[in-house]
Amino acid sequence: MIDHAPQSAGPIARLGRQPIAIAAVALVIVVFSVGFIALWRSYTGNAPETDRVVATRQLQARATQASEQLVEKTKGLEATQQESIDQLQMVQDQLQSVRRLLAAQQSDTRKLSEQVGTLTGAIEGLRQSFASTQASEPAADTPRRRVAKAKPRTRSAARSRAKAGG
Question: Taking CA 53 as the corner, what is the angle to CA 52 and CA 59, rounded to the nearest 5 degrees?
Answer without folding.
Answer: 85
